[in-house]
Amino acid sequence: xxxxxxxxxxxxxxxxxxxxxxxxxxxxxxxxxxxxxxxxxxxxxxxxxxxxxxxxxxxxxxxxxxxxxxxxxxxxxxxxxxxxxxxxx
Length: 89
What we know:
- By secondary structure, the protein is mainly α.
- The chain has a domain of 50 residues.
- The chain has 2 helices and no strands.
- Helix 1 packs antiparallel against helix 2.
- The chain is elongated.
- It starts with a helix and ends in a 10-residue tail after the last helix.
């Protein structure tokens, strides 16, 4: 019984990390699109609506690639970590 709970904990941590990054990958590019469009291109630079949408979409795609890169980097860096040896007294 105890061994089953010990095996579930890393699985839960992996699941939590994946969910966190999925939300991060979905929310951050969408927010960056609207923030950049509204604040930068529409309010400050006064670019035409269609042009500001295109530029904002480009920014959102770049942000999406950065967030995906962070997820991949995290996945590889965790996979390369050696397991900690268990000290037995």
